[in-house]
Design goal:
Blueprint: H1 2-20, H2 22-33, E1 40-50, E2 53-62, E3 66-75, E4 79-89, E5 113-122, E6 130-138, E7 141-146, E8 150-155, E9 158-164, H3 168-173, E10 178-189, E11 193-208, E12 211-226, E13 231-236, E14 240-246, H4 251-254, E15 260-264, E16 269-272, E17 275-285, E18 289-300, E19 305-316, E20 320-331, E21 334-350, E22 353-368, E23 373-383, E24 386-389, E25 392-395, E26 398-408, H5 409-413, E27 417-418, E28 422-423, E29 426-441, E30 444-457, E31 462-476, E32 479-494, E33 499-514, E34 518-530, E35 534-542, E36 545-553, E37 559-568, H6 573-579, E38 583-597, E39 602-616, E40 619-632, E41 637-639, E42 642-650, E43 654-665, E44 668-678, E45 681-689, E46 695-705, H7 706-711, E47 718-721, E48 723-733, E49 736-746, E50 750-754, H8 758-766, H9 771-775, E51 779-791, E52 796-807, E53 812-823, H10 824-832, H11 835-849
Parallel strand pairs: 4-5
Antiparallel strand pairs: 1-2, 2-3, 3-4, 5-6, 6-7, 7-8, 8-9, 9-10, 10-11, 11-12, 12-13, 12-14, 13-16, 14-15, 15-17, 16-17, 17-18, 18-19, 19-20, 20-21, 21-22, 22-23, 22-24, 23-26, 24-25, 25-29, 26-29, 27-28, 29-30, 30-31, 31-32, 32-33, 33-34, 34-35, 35-36, 36-37, 37-38, 38-39, 39-40, 40-41, ...
Length: 850
């Protein structure tokens, strides 16, 4: 008996010792039987709280994934109650990921149910501690409440969870763009894949500068992620609705874009740890006819990188129908997109521009760094049945362009402009080829025109513009150009405030038809320099006539000079034929210099003619000379006095040594102090106005030889000697020339002698009784001669001649009155056809033919 008692005491002593050393013994056992790399218990304080119940005051558990502390835990065969648990998540260590395995949970082991009154989880990636409570209503079925509401069911081969997606804590985990989220999520995990079925109500807000928008989705979302190949898929049952307020666009363009959108994903989104892709994506405008379709969209999440095929269709009543189709790839520092744009619009009205039946087709390519440098290539072709703007109308214009451009994005964002026009950071090369069948601007019409060229703007701000214009015909009411060919080259540099450039060009016109003049073979060679103003020179050649036109242009003035060097007058014959076909130039030179300001239209003219000879209505003008200096204004002409001289004028009568003063007074050009030698005497005219209005010209005759006058007549056998003078008031008007009440008289004693005159002899034979009377005229000394002179506009000259004299042979005084009427135009025409004038005419015409 005593031995049994001592054994009992020994056993109780061991139990008491073990209980008192329970903590270190528990830690030793756990450390001995559990692997070191999986779970470590650093602290453990427990006691028995009943026959089959243990109370753990505190336990510390460490793993590679977390550190945990458990407080006030009650353990029994049926229930584990943890009043408080704190879990600190640890950053993952770099290690080779284990191959996923299908779940095989040891759930057949009998264990007590669990309850955690307060579980706090903190550490990355959580923004703040997550506090929940967990209760196990049935074995392996858990209810989670608190910051997250969920139901979790454990089965040997899977874990299933139903999670409520609303709540403040989940909102903190979402990006700031997601403003609202609600719904439920059903998750199933089997160790190899995660399946999800969700019912969502979410609102996404986007804001970039002034561009604001929102997107909403209400509907089911299903997905699966396979851990074995690290790939998953997501499918949306409903389209995503989006709204936008595009204040970042100009109001004119903002009206074109839809404010409400729908995003459809007809196929699944394939996702992996490195990429996401979908077979197709559609964006459809609800309040505007716009549809965007993206096919084979792929997103590389590691680089990241996006590529796909895109098709955009847009239709607007004002802007027409447009389609864009192409392929694109985008990464953070590179964009590459190429495709084709087509547009069709019945009528486009843009400010003052109206285009009918406008068609556009263009290939394009955009590539580069959107933050640094972007390259743009495009080959647009534009056609319209009619284009009109500000009085300009073009029928069936077509335009082909080849564009290569570079956009320096940082410089473009600075919004600095070169010469207040071109954005800094833009460089390009444009080749153009256009056809303009019929062009009308105000009263000007151009037919069958083409415009081609190349425009280049270098990144260094140097530019080079080459243009070629060809037009079959350009016509205005007063002129017409045939076969115009024009080239222009403009080179220079665009500085921040100045443009420094050079210009060169060539213009050729086969024929210029003016109202009364035709110009042929017109050629103009042009050169110029431009800085603050324009300095240009033009070498003009019109059917052999050469000229140099120089001018300077600025905001204040536009001085110009036209210099016509000394050239032969015969070069002007084609133009004289159009204006005055009766005038034929035979010899001589001319020159002219015109200087002035095109803005004020005030010019000075210096010019002249030397050794000028011409035929005018069979009148021969020889060795004419004049130097002219004048000032021309919009209202009048001021001509400095100069001398006009003509060596000889043959008009039946030979007029020599013609001289006159050419000048202007009160804006009227005049010839004054006109003098000439004729019939061994002289004639003088005080003044002739070179205007079409009627005027009276006083012609003075001084000592004209009667014998020369008689010799020019057509009656043989009549000899007349002496000198006469007189005054002839000549009336000049547009209808002709006439003389009213002119008068001539003899200067000294003269002689009238009739010998073998056919008319006188016939009169004597018919009337013998008159022989004595007529006989006194056979040789009459003229003491006094006077005559009235009248000339009609049709050339009839009437003379009322009174002669007083004596026949010295017969000592017979004579008073003789005689009236004579003859058409002097006919007489002069007959005289002009004499052998001498005919010879001169032939020589002049022969020179012209050569």
């Amino acid at each position: 008996m005593k031995k049994w008692l001592w054994s009992l005491v020994l056993i109780l002593s061991v139990l008491v010792g073990v209980y008192l050393a329970r903590v270190p013994l528990s830690l030793w056992a756990i450390k001995h039987f559990m692997p070191d790399n999986e779970v470590q218990i650093s602290c453990l304080d427990w006691r028995l709280s009943g026959f089959n119940r243990i109370h753990i005051t505190k336990a510390c558990v460490q793993t590679e994934a977390f550190n945990a502390q458990l407080f006030d835990t009650q353990l029994s065969m049926r229930q584990v109650n943890i009043e408080k648990a704190d879990i600190q998540l640890l950053p993952p260590k770099n290690s080779d990921a284990a191959q996923p395995q299908r779940l095989v949970l040891p759930l057949d082991i009998a264990r007590p149910k669990m309850r955690i009154a307060k579980l706090s989880i903190s550490g990355e990636p959580l923004p703040k501690p997550l506090v929940v409570s967990i209760s196990e209503s049935e074995l392996n079925q858990f209810v989670v409440s608190g910051d997250i509401v969920a139901e979790v069911t454990l089965q040997p081969e899977r874990i299933a969870a139903n999670v409520e997606l609303s709540g403040e804590y989940l909102r903190t985990l979402l990006p700031p763009q997601i403003q609202a989220l609600s719904g439920t999520s059903q998750l199933v995990f089997n160790g190899l894949a995660l399946d999800a079925e969700m019912e969502l109500e979410t609102l996404l807000a986007l804001e970039q500068a002034e561009c604001k928008g929102s997107a909403a989705y209400i509907g089911a979302v299903s997905g699966r992620y396979d851990l074995t190949n690290q790939q998953g898929k997501i499918a949306l049952a409903e389209p995503i609705s989006a709204k936008s307020t595009l204040d970042c666009f100009d109001s004119e363009y903002r009206k074109l874009l839809p404010s409400t959108w729908q995003l459809r994903l007809p196929s699944e989104i394939i996702i992996s740890a490195k990429a996401a892709s979908t077979g197709s994506l559609e964006v459809i405008g609800e309040d505007k006819s716009l549809q965007l379709e993206v096919n084979e969209l792929a997103v590389d999440l590691t680089e990241p990188f996006v590529n796909g095929d895109i098709r955009l269709e847009f239709a607007d009543e004002k802007w027409g129908a447009h389609t864009l189709a192409g392929a694109f790839s985008v990464r953070p520092n590179f964009v590459d997109m190429s495709g084709e744009i087509t547009s069709d619009l019945q009528k486009l009205t843009l400010q003052d521009v109206i285009a009918e039946n406008l068609e556009l087709n263009s290939r394009f390519k955009i590539s580069g760094d959107p933050t640094e440098l972007i390259k743009v290539e495009a080959q647009p072709t534009i056609f319209s049945t009619q284009l009109s703007t500000s009085g300009l109308m073009i029928d069936n214009p077509s335009l082909k362009l080849d564009l290569h451009a570079q956009l320096d994005v940082p410089k473009l964002k600075s919004e600095h402009r070169l010469h207040r026009v071109l954005p800094e950071g833009m460089s390009f090369a444009i080749t153009l080829d256009s056809t303009l069948r019929n062009l009308n601007v105000e009263n000007v019409t151009a037919k069958q025109s083409t415009l081609s060229g190349r425009v280049v703007l270098e990144p260094t701000h140097d530019f080079d513009i080459n243009l070629n214009l060809i037009s079959a015909q350009i016509q205005q009411q007063n002129y017409k150009l045939n076969e115009l060919v024009q080239t222009l080259r403009w080179q220079g540099s665009v500085a921040t405030g100045e443009i420094f450039s050079t210009l060169s060009g060539n213009t050729k016109v086969a024929e210029v038809n003016l109202a009364d003049l035709n110009l042929k073979d017109v050629s103009i060679e042009s050169k110029g320099q431009q800085s603050r103003g324009l300095m240009a020179s033009h070498v003009i050649n019109i059917d052999g006539v050469k000229a140099l036109f120089e001018h300077q242009y600025s905001n204040l003035k536009h001085p110009a000079q036209l210099h016509v060097p000394t050239q032969q007058l015969t070069q002007l014959q084609p133009y004289i034929d159009a204006l005055l076909p009766e005038l034929k130039m035979t010899n001589g030179n001319f020159y002219a210099v015109l200087e002035g300001d095109l803005s004020t239209r005030i010019f000075t003219l210096d010019g002249g003619i030397q050794n000028g000879s011409a035929l005018f209505n069979e009148r021969l003008i020889q060795n004419a000379a004049v130097d002219v200096s004048a000032q021309l204004g919009s209202a009048n002409i001021q001509l400095k006095p100069t001398t006009l001289s003509v060596e000889e004028l043959r008009a039946g009568v030979i007029v020599q040594a013609i001289q006159a003063q050419l000048l202007s007074e009160a804006g009227i050009v005049k010839l004054k102090d006109i003098g000439a030698q004729v019939f061994a005497g002289s004639i003088n005219i005080e003044e002739v106005k070179l205007i079409p209005t009627p005027q009276e010209v006083q012609v003075s005759l001084d000592k004209l030889s009667l014998d020369l006058i008689a010799a020019s007549g057509h009656d043989a056998g009549v000899e007349l000697r002496g000198l006469i003078s007189g005054k002839l008031p000549v009336q000049v008007s547009s209808s002709g020339v006439r003389i009213d009440s002119g008068h001539i008289h003899n200067v000294s004693e003269g002689l009238l002698k009739v010998e073998n005159n056919a008319s006188i002899n016939a009169l004597k034979a018919q009337q013998p009784s008159l022989q004595t009377v007529i006989g006194v005229l056979d040789e009459l000394t003229i003491e006094q001669l006077s005559s009235g002179v009248n000339l009609s506009e049709d050339g009839w000259l009437d003379l009322d001649v009174k002669i007083t004299g004596i026949n010295k042979r017969q000592q017979q005084p004579v008073n003789f009155n005689y009236t004579h009427s003859e058409n002097v135009f006919t007489l002069l025409r007959a005289l002009r056809l004499s052998d001498e004038i005919t010879r001169e005419v032939e020589n002049a015409l022969n020179k012209e033919e050569r």
